[in-house]
Amino acid sequence: MLTKDKQISKAVIKRLPRYRRYLRELQKKGIEKISSKDLSKLIGYTASQIRQDLNNFGGFGQQGYGYSVNNLHDEIGGILGLDREYKMVIVGYGRLGQAIASYISRNEPQFHIVGIFDVKQIIQDVQFKDAQIMTCGSLYNFVRNEGVEIAVITVPSEKAQIVADTVVDAGIKGIWNLTAVDLELPEDIAVENVHMSDSLHALAYYMHELDEEA
Amino acid sequence: MLTKDKQISKAVIKRLPRYRRYLRELQKKGIEKISSKDLSKLIGYTASQIRQDLNNFGGFGQQGYGYSVNNLHDEIGGILGLDREYKMVIVGYGRLGQAIASYISRNEPQFHIVGIFDVKQIIQDVQFKDAQIMTCGSLYNFVRNEGVEIAVITVPSEKAQIVADTVVDAGIKGIWNLTAVDLELPEDIAVENVHMSDSLHALAYYMHELDEEA
After folding, report:
1. Domain total for chain A?
2. Is residue B211, in this structure, part of any structural domain at all?
3. What is the 3-state secondary structure (H, E, C) of A36-59?
4. Fewest beta carbons within 10 Å, which of A65, A162, A205, B63?
5. Strand B131-135 with B174-177, pairing
6. Which residues, other chains included, contact B110 with Cβ-Cβ below 8 Å and sequence gap of 6+?
7. What CATH number is given to the structural domain containing B63?
8. Which domain holds residue B35?
């Protein structure tokens, strides 16, 4: 695999999953190679943007041939860390937690949900696929004993920080934060936030802007 | 309200909901003014970044006083288009659609869910708050007759484009796309995507990167 020779900007990182997603669609259609121009039409970035992004990682294209779909898909997967598997717990098993569990088990084979946690005693001892559903009291020991790497947090906002502290103490490496608040975390913990309200408010802005243009 | 005198970059727009969210927290605590330095500690952007962002809109701070929390909150709300109300439908009422409906009704008073749509006949005639749950066959007429402005799409990926086409034909202004695919839309339709997999893959990258640093 090609190695990164410099720090990659966050904007590029945010685009890589999108490249990989489109390449996967091409794979499904049996397409083996693609030019940056055709990739551009498909993804909606300019061909020059695409070449520039992929040059960050040494570039994978060949002059006059374009990109090998399989190769580029796998290389990007490798860069993203998707060439390995992850143990994951979901904390908070309301509607959103259930939606996420079902989404991941259907679409993300590298991510294994090994345990699910909620405050509600009523759901104790129920299973989701191979994962046992437990109460939050056993979260720390479970994460520690099972060597869980990722915690998905979907609890109410006011509980988010204490859940984060618990999993960090237990040795978690990454947090996928689906609550409405930002978390205070040590610098060696990876975090990715999905703030629903921020996204909805950005939509309102785009509508407002289009309205003013019209 | 202060007016925008130039095109605002997408990066700034993405930060505004976050500013507003923190200002709301300050309001709840009864805090009336804040310096860009204290705002910086709270939000995690540099004070200079904050001043620069807010200068895009004419700046709201006063030398030696800082920002008025209420004023800044409302001004940002106005810029985002949150000083008015929106009629919204949710299309797709599986677990994710249910989670979103419940989240919006609890946290987003400006967004009124006026109708919910799903393919399943079984849920017909059931209500969520004031919104009737209907089958997708009536989506076009409902959006058109009620003057609905926003459609939240949470259907399976392969149905996403046809739902988008239907609501666009019916006069929708904005789409909040929570499916795994990008939509082809006319240029005068606002769209904001929440691609769960892209976000999860970015998390994997950050973990991978921290791992290499360690």
Report:
1. 2
2. no
3. HHHHHHHHCCCHHHHHHHHHCCCC
4. B63
5. unpaired
6. A204, B82, B84, B85, B86
7. 1.10.10.10
8. 10-80
Q: Could you say which of A81, A102, A203 has the minimum Cβ distance to residue B205? A: A81
The structure's pTM equals: 0.88
What are the chain A neighbours of B112 within 8 Å (beta carbons)?
A: none
For residue A205, give the nearest of B13, B194, B201 by CB distance.
B13
- To which residue do tokens 């919006």 refer? B104
Tokens representing A42 are 């498909």
Judgement on whether residues B90 and B76 belong to the same structural domain of the protein: no
Per-residue pLDDT of A164-209, as tens digits, reads 999 999 999 999 999 999 999 999 999 999 999 999 999 999 999 8
- What ipTM was predicted for this assembly? 0.89
CA angle at residue B88 from B82 to B93, to 5 degrees? 130
Between residues B11 and A118, which one has the greater pLDDT? A118
Q: Are residues A52 and A71 in the same domain?
A: yes
CB contact under 8 A, A201 and B17: yes
Q: How close is the nearest chain B Cα to the Cα of A105, in Å? A: 12
Domain contains B212:
no
Search chain A and give the residue with CA nearest B188: A210
Q: Following DSSP, what letter does each residue of A14-35 receive, concatenated? A: HHHHHHHHHHHHHHHTT--EE-
Is A74 in the same domain as A158? no
Same domain flag for A49 and A119: no
